[in-house]
Design goal:
heterodimer; A: mainly alpha; 21 helices; B: mainly alpha; flat
């Protein structure tokens, strides 16, 4: 291995700092700055990288997609989705577990982040499940597990990040996430069915068809969102950022004009929450870009590429090792950081050495890293769940653990059957 | 507890979804840095809508909207980061606090605060230097001086130093037993 020892030290030190509770963004910034100073680079370079690397119109899609999701949450659109999902799948054994998965699937089509799903739908879903006698662990687990659909099914904030940083078509990535998103829902529902049948969980009472139809009509306008976004992008009408803008305007239209469930005060709160959440993320992204740039200056990606290329002969072995390594790293490192630093290193190797399509690589990497949301110590979804339920991180981690199995099975299916990812974008010419 | 339903089974985990207040204090509504960041977010929406409308309705594509929004993104991020520093809610792993207790965490985090303050001083200095180096550089479409775009880094870093000191002082109070919580 020919990677410079100082760079390995840099990565190790930043990791140790993060595990001991150093704020993630600053851990990356501080270690990068120390490396620069130690190697006689001026500090102006650090500021230049931090300030100007974020300068991308496409990155703007991140706050806007988050805003769209939060407006949908605050406008009580999620209540309607839950009602519809309840009537549609509540009678299958496993009852509210399936409702939970379907509601997340629908919500994933409107929002681009795991956190909006957990924070918005989570509370309502867990309350509903507990009231009907479901175990708290099961309710917490299925809520977290199904939120994994969010970043895979378009629109998706992590896919935008991946597309920008690895220079891959965002429309292609969005299309590539459609079938995998459905696959995740299916594997989760199989698991929920099995548990639900065994424990004889409550199922929703029968509803008459006119009632189901009415719930569908009420939930129909939000159901259109992913088709507007992905359709507009596929046809080349919108850029990703413009699509995100249209999604926000559509969500505002639904919340304020169609359902009339949102006061101006609430809208103000939504904007504030989005500003805080996106600044947290974007500040980490800024520092991760600086950190990644320092690694590039030290030629780490090239050396790592050579090293990996000499290690694995075929692409299936390469993908297996990448998957396992990412699952382990995802537990320790904040997922945006992992994505931002590894995507630009791994995508060129995957493409040139092993002939792996960047869209395939992107969807697999994003989903894999998102599974890290559910494993301690660094799992943002676990933190959110703690904030809304008051349970300890340990209990929440144990609750979600069984749901990692269907998620990992889905991951391996999309890794080893590339058509699951690539069929749709190929068919539509990406 | 919502144990009213007849189908309720005994459960090992006790939670009360209606009475949970563990969520940490997030930045408050009317802090100037939050308001500034919110104005920028609204302007993204306005600029981007303007761009779509001008292209499809008036068939006159604009170049300056993209440039302006992309440059404002860094301002929003640093305004937001300043507010998050003020409320001390930057994303961090909190296992130390769960495992070793609030006092150990307070002590360790106070040391981290000092490191962060040194780093921020570096950003203030580096940012100031960079601004003078970039004195004559301008953006292509709107001719905005690049130094103005970069300026937010030293400005917000300077303000964040103040907040970081306040955070460290609060943690020292925890250490000497005047509060029982690291936040």
């Amino acid at each position: 291995m020919h990677i410079e020892a100082a760079l390995i030290g840099l990565v190790v030190v930043s990791l140790v700092l993060i595990i001991f509770g150093f704020p993630v963004a600053f851990a990356l910034g501080v270690t990068a700055a120390v490396y620069l100073v130690a190697n006689d680079f001026p500090l102006t370079l650090a500021v230049q990288e931090a300030a100007l690397s974020l300068n991308s119109f496409t990155m703007l899609a991140i706050p806007l997609f988050m805003l769209a999701g939060m407006v949908m949450n605050a406008g009580k659109i999620t209540d309607r989705i839950f009602d519809f999902a309840n009537m549609a799948v509540g009678r299958i054994p496993g009852g509210l577990g399936h409702v939970n998965v379907l509601a997340s699937l629908i919500f994933a089509g409107m929002s681009g982040s795991v956190l909006a799903d957990v924070a918005g739908l989570g509370r309502m879903e867990i309350k509903a499940m507990r009231d009907k006698g479901y175990d708290t662990k099961f309710a917490v687990g299925v809520t977290l597990g199904s939120s994994a659909i969010g970043p895979i099914l378009p629109p998706s904030v992590p896919m935008v990040m991946f597309g920008v940083i690895a220079e891959v078509s965002i429309t292609g990535l969005f299309l590539g996430g459609v079938l995998p998103g459905l696959l995740i829902a299916l594997t989760l529902m199989i698991y929920v069915y099995w548990v639900g049948k065994k424990r004889e969980y409550y199922i929703t009472e029968r509803h008459a068809w006119p009632e189901i139809l009415r719930a569908f009509i009420v939930a129909f306008p939000p159901l259109l969102t992913p088709f507007i976004i992905v359709g507009g992008m596929t046809l080349g009408i919108f850029s990703p950022t413009e699509a995100a803008t249209v999604a926000v305007l559509y969500a505002l239209l639904l919340a304020v004009v169609v359902y009339r469930d949102m006061a101006w005060k609430e809208l103000f709160d939504v904007f504030r929450e989005v500003v805080v959440a996106t600044s947290k993320l974007l500040f980490i992204i800024t520092m991760a870009l600086l950190f990644g740039w320092v690694l590039t200056v030290g030629q780490m990606p090239q050396q790592l590429a050579q090293f990996l290329g000499s290690l694995f002969a075929d692409k299936w072995m390469f993908l297996l090792v990448i998957n396992i390594v990412l699952l382990v790293l995802g537990a320790v490192i904040e997922n945006a950081v992992l994505l931002l630093i590894l995507a630009p290193m791994l995508v060129p190797i995957a493409q040139s050495t092993y002939g792996i399509d960047p869209i395939h690589m992107g969807v697999v990497m994003v989903f894999n890293i998102m599974i890290g949301q559910y494993t301690p110590p660094m799992g943002l979804s676990l933190f959110i769940m703690r904030d809304i339920t008051g349970l300890s991180l340990k209990d929440i981690s144990l609750a979600v653990a069984p749901f990692l199995l269907p998620l990992i099975i889905s991951l391996f299916i999309m890794t080893y059957v590339p058509e699951v990812v690539l069929w749709l974008p190929r068919t539509l010419g990406f | 507890m919502s144990a009213s339903s007849p189908v309720n089974k005994p459960d090992e985990l006790r939670i009360d979804l209606d009475n949970v207040h563990v969520a940490k204090p997030e930045p408050k509504g009317h802090w100037p840095e939050i308001i500034a960041a919110m104005i920028i977010l609204v302007s993204f929406l306005a600029l981007s809508s303007l761009q779509v409308i001008s292209r499809y309705v008036f068939d006159a594509p604009m170049v300056w909207t993209e440039e302006l929004s992309a440059n404002l993104l860094i301002w929003m991020t640093f305004f937001g980061a300043t507010a998050i520093m003020r409320s001390d809610t930057h994303i961090r792993v909190e296992f130390v606090e769960e495992l070793a207790g609030p006092r150990v965490a307070a002590c360790l985090f106070a040391v981290f605060d000092v490191v962060i303050i040194i780093f921020l001083c570096g950003l203030v200095y580096g940012g100031w230097e960079l601004m003078s180096q970039l004195e004559f550089e301008r953006t292509p479409a709107l001719r905005i001086p690049i130094a103005w775009i970069v300026a937010i880094v030293p400005i917000s870093s300077f303000v964040m130093i103040g907040y970081a000191i306040a955070n460290a002082v609060r943690r020292m109070r925890v250490l000497f037993g005047k509060q029982n919580n690291a936040h």
